[in-house]
Fold:
Amino acid sequence: AVVSTQSGHYGRDLGKGEFEIKRKPEHGGDVSYSTFEELKEAYRTEQIYPLDLKTAVATYINQLLGPIVKEFQSKELKKLSSQAYPVANTKGGKTAEPERPVDISRIDIRVGKIVNIEPHPDADSLYVEKIDVGEAEPRTVISGLRKFVPQDKLDGALVAVVCNLKPANMRGIKSQGMLLCASDKDHTTVEVLIVPEGSKPGERITSDMFTDPPDSQLNPKKKIFEKVQTDLTTNAGLEVTYKGELLRTSAGPLVAPSLVNAAIR
Structure:
């Protein structure tokens, strides 16, 4: 520690109270100074030493920072700090990214074209569809639409497909996506959403206000799709919206055939 001899940078009065240096008796005992000149003179004449000053200054700094440190123990500031300075992932050795806000941008919804459709061999309510979503091979998607939509209405149709759900076995066949449909409250009427003509298989469906890249795969434990789903609905014009914003492709908005203010499932 060094005490500057340029006292012009400081006032003669050290402020309220005195500058106190606590020491063990064998090291000279406690001393205090009310002015900078007194402190400087004690240092010059070796009544106090660099370690004395370092210890005293550290004590005062800790007293000043104490209330600030306590404030940062609140849940809100701890959360803010963890987002600003993510901790390392101990398993992979990589830096963990902060959790993104839950909104429609996290869902990978694409235009799909049904290239083949058959009844599920082991379930009366299910179809097994092969859907082109712009990848090398069509995806297998299981949908529970046999009681609501005739098979010939779906064959060759453009549809909206959620592509980043975790694949799931449905009566012995693995489903790699989900068709988005409009449904009434009683789930007695279900309609496949109409994708505008001119849309291309694989094209992303989203809102102009939510354009961030989607998750590669949604974590089912975090219920991200379920949370987003609560804000998906049709408006008075049958258009599909998320928080009032239209869901669309480059060719136009998605619409439901007839259900107004319907949930999207």
Remarks:
- The mean pLDDT is 87.
